[in-house]
Amino acid sequence: MKLRVTPRNVFVVALLAMLVLLPVYSSVTGNTFMVTLFTRIIILAIAAVSLNLIMGFGGMVSFGHAAYLGIGGYVVGILAKEGISSGFIQWPLALVISGLFALGVGALSLRTRGVYFIMITLAFAQMVYYVANGLDRYGGDDGLTIQRRSDFGGLIDLSNRTVFYYLCLALLLATVYLVWRLINSRFGLVIQGARSNERRMRAIGFPTFRYKLTCFVIAGVLCGLAGVLLANHTNFISPALMHWTRSGDLIVMAVLGGMGTVIGPVIGAVALLVLEETLPHMIGFVSRVVTGQEVAAAKEYWQLILGPMLLLIVIYARGGIEGLISGRRRG
Amino acid sequence: MADTLLKIDGLTKRFGGVLASDNVVLDVTAGELHAIIGPNGAGKTTLIGQLSGEIAPDSGRVHFDGRDITALPVYTRSALGLARSFQITSLFLDFTALDNVALAVQAHAGHSFHFWQDARDESALREPARAALARAGLSARENEIVANMSHGEHRQLELAMALATKPRMLLLDEPMAGLGPEESARMVQTLRELKRELTILLIEHDMEAVFALADRISVLVYGRVIASGAPDAIRANAEVRQAYLGEQEAVTHV
User: Fold this and answer.
1) A9 shares contact with chain B (CB less than 8 Å)
2) Does residue A61 fall inside a structural domain?
3) Angle at Cα B77 formed by Cα B71 and Cα B83, nearest 5°?
4) Residues on chain A touching B115 (C-beta within 8 angstroms)
5) At CA B112, angle to CA B110 and CA B117, rounded to 5?
6) CB contact under 8 A, B92 and A197
7) Lowest-confidence range among A62-76, A181-195, A212-226, B69-83?
8) What is the distance in angstroms between the Cα of A265 and the nearest Cα belonging to chain B?
9) Average pLDDT rounded to a whole number, residues B20-34
10) Contact residues, chain B, for A57 at CB < 8 Å
């Protein structure tokens, strides 16, 4: 495949170069905060890409996707607490449990559509949320500190910040590539066909349910992986990992970045989390210039800026930021 | 030629107080083009829905090629070779024409749990799809997004998709609906070619087309088959004239 020089491709390559070079910048300037911030962004981008697989390509709007972040995280946390810190046990187990949970949720929710589908996925996520709240042995609603990151013997040292950053970035790129192959395969065309016109898919001979369910499970496993990484990143798990507003954040990332392409949610994750980080500072700066003094309270209102920005994107650029850059409109 | 391919035995479907199918009995012989006509609301589309499996009948059986398919889901019937087209165009609007037909081919080319290879590069899917597009006269438009195509082209594409599933029998629900005279003529020509190789059950309002194409015609009124026979016999049937043809004449003379 030849890469053409378009504004969109230039943007994506620039973003990629920025992500690859970030730790270098960070070690030169001594600014470790950037690496920490972008590790988090990359992990949530994996979650957003996995959500977009079912939402953007499959038309299945899951409002409970953060549940898999929680499941992935809690498997790591609980095993660590019980003295099993081997990543070779933690990671596969986390992915399997995420997949099984997705299988259960999907088997029920995929029989419904529209708002009922959204409600069922939300209900399951809330169930897991409250179960986590009730796990007193593992911190209940206070959460649990993970003493040791996943241990892969001498293979890879996750407690090294730069190593962990590159591992997350590699897994993000692998996820994007996997999803890209997936959506262009026979399987992916069935999923997109079912989003476009499920009735017709059945009429031409596709048992759509089993394909959608498989897709739902794949997305769950990928998001479970993001949960595993997030727990290792923060060394901490709590029910907040899977609060329903987190599921909303993931939806916002996909919509903001653009649901029409695999890379869109990555752009959305970067945009949303960078804005979340910088808007309070910008507001603080503007309020200082205007009033001549520090107005701490003004910083609280950064979402007042973010909200209208989201509105504009949704109304005027249905393809999200990605669509805006590539000059393509969707819907 | 005398084999019965599709056997409809006493199909009854009730929606609330409305009897949409009233003990429908109908045989479609292999190789024939069997048309079903009837006034609006006679239950034609409901009948097609029960044959394709989207609507479950209250009672009665449907046999396809000697096999009882009454309880089979839509996709299994499609796999057996029973293909339907839709009265209201039902396509994948955000896909290209070729993608639409290739999906129909894919549906009958084994399972689709292939996760890696680019399906748009698979000639096993693309070539039969191109052939079906060519038969429907859409070769020049294969890379057009379907949403940008005309209504007439949509009807042709509907047909191409039904053909691409390599069916033994086509259930066509008003393929001429909304077509201009020229497009209609082209559709009649296409159907005439198709009926040489396929058994077709045709629901159609365009009487000219029906009498030009059909080997046999059944007349459905209020969910009941009131007559069934060769076109000439139907034209001569007094009950049909009164219930249907006469009524239409009266309408056209207003």
Assistant:
1) no
2) yes
3) 140
4) 181-182, 185, 187-188
5) 110
6) yes
7) B69-83
8) 21
9) 93
10) none
Q: What is the CATH number of domain B4-81+167-253?
A: 3.40.50.300
ipTM of the prediction greater than 0.90, yes or no: no
pTM for this model (two decimals): 0.87
Two structure tokens written together for B117:
């290879």
Whether A160 is in a domain gets the answer: yes
- Chain A residues near residue B78 by CB distance under 8 angstroms: 202-205
Contact B119 A189 (CB under 8 A): yes
Domains in chain A: how many in total? 1
**Buried b or exposed e, range A28-57, using 16+ CB within 10 angstroms:** eeeeeeebbbbbbbbbbbbbbbbbbbbbbb
Does A16 reside within a domain?
no
pLDDT value at position B2? 59
Q: Per-residue pLDDT tens for B102-147? A: 999 999 998 999 999 999 999 999 999 999 999 888 999 999 999 9
State yes or no: pLDDT of B180 exceeds 90: no
Domain hosting residue A142, numbered range: 32-243
CA torsion, ordered A156, A158, A159, A165, to nearest 10 deg: 120
Residue A198 belongs to some domain of the structure: yes
Residue extents of the structural domains in chain B: 4-81+167-253, 96-166
Contact yes or no for A187 and B114 at CB 8 A: yes
- C-alpha span between B154 and B143 (Å, rounded): 14
Give the minimum alpha-carbon distance from A53 to chain B in angstroms, rounded to a whole number: 13
Contacts of B73 in chain A (CB under 8 A): 202, 207
